[in-house]
C-alpha cells in the first residue's frame, strides 16, 4: 500500500509541476523595459528561455505608468506562441515603493496571466506574507503563478532561510509557487559598500550562499548580471564560474548575451546520462507497480525526479 501511495504522489507531483510551468529552464533571464513596445516585440522573436517584462530598474520613474499599461496590453493579447517552451514574466517594483500594488493589480487582472512574477528587494518574510495576501485576492480563478524572489542586500541574506521557509509554507495553500532565487549583485555591493572587481571575489560568499539555500529548497538559482554586455569572453567566463557553483541560469540585459549564456548552462554529458538512466529506472519501477526505489545507491525522491526531468529537457536543446 505504501508503495502505491508514493507512486501516486509522484505521478501527481510531476503532472502538477508541468502544468505550473515549474520545470521551464531559465538559463537566460532577459530583462525588457516595459515601456518599450519595440523591444518587447523583438524579445518574442528571440530564442530565450525567460523574458522578464520590466517595471522596475529598466524603467524611468516618469515612465512607470506607461510600462504598466504597455505590459498589460501585451498580456491581454495572450502569450505569443513559439517553437520552444519559454517563461513570460513581469518584474514589478519593490514592495517598499508606491508602484508595486498597481504593477501587480495590472498584470494579474489581464486577460491572460503571466507565467511568473519577479519580486525585487525582498529583505524579510513579512514582505512575502504581504505579497501572498495580495496575490490571493487578485487571482480569482484556480490558476497559480510562479514567483521568483530577488536577494539584494545584507539583511536579505541574513534572513534568506526564513524567507524561503515562509514562502515554501505559503505556497502550499496559496495562488503562487516559489520557483527561484536571483542574486542582485549590484544592489548588494552598493548596500555593503563593496568595490566591484572583474574576479567578483568581493561577493563570493554571498554568491555561493544563494546557491546553497536555493538548492536546499529545490529552487532555481539565477546568477548576477554581467554589465559589460559587449565583452562576450568575460561573459562566458562568468557563466562558467556560476555554472560550476551550481547556478542554473543568469540574468541578461542584452539580446547579444543570450546565446552564450544559454549554451553555458546546458548540462554535461555525464549529467545527461545520469538523468536518462534515472528516468528509465523510474518508468521500469512504475511498470512493475513499485513506488519507492534506489538508483546508483541513492533513494529517489520527488525533487530528484524533477531535477532529472530538467536535465533531460535541457539536453534536448543541445545542438
UniProtKB/TrEMBL annotation:
Q: Biological process (GO) annotations?
A: regulation of cobalamin metabolic process
Catalysed reactions, semicolon-separated: propanoyl-CoA + glyoxylate + H2O = 3-methylmalate + CoA + H(+); glyoxylate + acetyl-CoA + H2O = (S)-malate + CoA + H(+); (3S)-citramalyl-CoA = pyruvate + acetyl-CoA
Names of required cofactors: Mg(2+)
Q: Where does Mg(2+) bind?
A: 152, 187
**Molecular function terms from GO:** (S)-citramalyl-CoA lyase activity; hydrolase activity; malate synthase activity; metal ion binding
* A single cellular component GO annotation: mitochondrion
Q: Name the SUPFAM superfamilies on file.
A: Phosphoenolpyruvate/pyruvate domain
* Xref: InterPro entries: Aldolase/citrate-lyase_domain, Citramalyl-CoA_lyase, Citrate_lyase_beta/mcl1/mcl2, Pyrv/PenolPyrv_kinase-like_dom, Pyrv_kinase-like_dom_sf
Q: Answer whether the UniProt record assigns the keyword Transit peptide to this protein.
A: yes
Q: What subcellular locations does the record give?
A: Mitochondrion
| Keywords assigned by UniProt, alphabetized | Acetylation, Hydrolase, Lyase, Magnesium, Metal-binding, Mitochondrion, Transferase, Transit peptide
Q: What is this protein called?
A: Citramalyl-CoA lyase, mitochondrial
Amino acid at each position: 500500500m505504501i508503495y502505491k501511495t508514493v507512486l501516486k504522489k509522484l505521478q501527481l507531483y510531476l503532472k502538477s509541476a508541468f502544468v505550473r510551468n515549474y520545470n521551464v529552464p531559465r538559463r537566460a533571464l532577459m530583462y525588457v523595459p516595459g515601456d518599450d513596445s519595440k523591444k518587447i516585440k523583438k524579445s518574442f522573436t528571440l530564442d530565450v528561455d525567460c523574458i522578464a517584462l520590466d517595471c522596475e530598474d529598466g524603467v524611468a520613474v516618469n515612465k512607470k505608468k506607461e510600462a504598466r499599461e504597455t505590459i498589460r496590453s501585451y498580456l491581454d493579447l495572450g502569450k505569443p506562441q513559439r517553437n520552444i517552451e519559454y517563461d513570460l514574466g513581469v518584474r514589478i517594483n519593490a514592495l517598499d515603493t508606491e508602484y508595486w500594488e498597481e504593477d501587480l493589480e495590472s498584470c494579474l487582472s489581464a486577460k491572460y496571466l503571466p507565467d511568473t512574477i519577479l519580486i525585487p528587494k525582498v529583505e524579510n518574510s513579512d514582505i512575502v506574507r504581504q505579497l501572498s495576501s495580495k496575490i490571493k485576492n487578485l487571482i480569482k480563478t484556480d490558476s497559480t503563478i510562479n514567483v521568483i524572489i530577488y536577494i539584494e542586500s545584507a539583511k536579505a541574506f541574513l534572513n534568506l532561510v526564513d524567507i524561503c521557509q515562509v514562502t515554501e509554507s505559503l505556497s502550499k495553500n496559496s495562488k503562487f509557487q516559489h520557483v527561484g532565487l536571483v542574486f542582485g549583485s549590484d544592489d548588494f555591493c552598493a548596500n555593503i559598500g563593496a568595490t566591484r572587481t572583474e574576479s567578483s571575489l568581493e561577493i563570493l560568499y554571498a554568491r555561493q550562499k544563494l546557491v546553497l539555500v536555493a538548492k536546499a529548497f529545490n529552487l532555481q538559482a539565477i546568477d548576477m548580471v554581467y554589465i559589460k554586455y559587449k565583452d562576450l569572453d568575460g561573459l562566458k567566463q562568468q557563466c562558467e564560474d556560476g555554472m560550476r557553483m551550481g547556478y542554473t541560469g543568469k540574468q541578461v540585459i542584452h539580446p547579444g548575451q543570450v546565446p552564450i549564456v544559454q549554451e553555458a548552462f546546458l548540462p554535461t554529458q555525464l549529467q545527461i546520462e545520469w538523468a536518462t538512466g534515472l528516468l528509465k529506472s523510474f518508468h521500469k519501477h512504475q511498470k512493475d507497480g513499485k513506488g519507492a526505489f534506489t538508483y546508483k545507491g541513492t533513494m529517489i525522491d520527488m525533487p530528484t525526479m524533477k531535477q532529472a526531468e530538467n536535465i533531460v529537457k535541457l539536453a534536448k536543446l543541445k545542438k
